[in-house]
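Notes, Module 5: Reading structure tokens.

Key idea: the token line is not a picture. It is a compressed description, and you learn to read it the same way you learned to read a sequence, by spotting repeated patterns. We will look at two proteins. The first is printed below with its tokens.
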Amino acid sequence: MKRVSSARPMREIMALADKANQYIDEKKPWLIAKEEGKDKELHEVCSMGINLFRLLVAFLKPVLPVLAIMRKAFWNIGSQAWP
């Protein structure tokens, strides 16, 4: 039986995490929050950030199951289908 390496998928997940971090860094929600009339934009940026985190944790569930459990507890959600 051929063994499959987990290095490549992990590199790809980490590349996605880097892109998610770049998005948040470029949008700077901490600055948007200080501006009047930017509530909608702030909501959109924060929602995107939370959803990116949700997907990354789902991708990492096989190697970081405790993080997945903590995510479910934090959001008070039951088991979910992949992702």
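Here is the second protein, with the sequence above and the tokens below, as before.
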Amino acid sequence: MSKHILEIRNVHKHFGSQLVLNGVDLDVSEKEVVTIIGSSGSGKTTLLRCINLLNEPDDGHIYFMGSDLMDPKTDLEKLRMHIGMVFQSFNLFNNKTALQNCILGPMKLLKQSKEEATENAMRYLTKVGMQNFAHQQVTRLSGGQKQRVAIARALAMNPTIMLFDEPTSALDPEMVGEVLSVMKDLAKEGMTMVIVTHEMGFAEEVSDRIVFMDQGVIAEMGTPQEILKNPKEERTKAFLKRYRSNTLI
């Protein structure tokens, strides 16, 4: 792995009196795929949202491409353009077509012409298998199709890193595969990704490292082999036991 794109140092986050992140440290290198797993309420989504300051940490530092996102002098909006985010609930504009969703950001933030933005958007819609639905209203798309459009929209901004917040959890089971397939392709192409997911088989296949979070801390971290097949911590073992079926992951 080469240089760290992302460095998270001693990050704390409270919601009211509840401590959600308790001194988290994590590095992500260029072209690395880091998957975060853990029970509901473990802090994994909050950590992901802190990376682009959708949730602002109470304490600690987040360095992205060498700049401290917590420093008031940092041009946060400029750096955010390099961070793609795919949400659990798609977050598309329902009154627009798939293509219109994908060209808004590049035109407004990257100052691309409509022609350039459209050409780029169509390339990414094709990449995720949605080129034939470019002019379809978002409301007429299935959940899996919406999520693939959301991925194309994030890619159209030419991000340095992609964040995925449980991208398949709102989907019907038969639609999960089509979204995971797109993400597997991105991993093979060397996209730097941080993924919060419950899809253990997918995590095993694509991850360079898996992070297990519990009660606001990183309880264990290692390769898929280490975490999924030979975890050391009892709470990691207990978590995985709940997700295993009769066959091993």
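Summary for the second protein:
- The chain has a mean pLDDT of 93.
- The CA atoms of residues 82 and 249 lie 34 Å apart.
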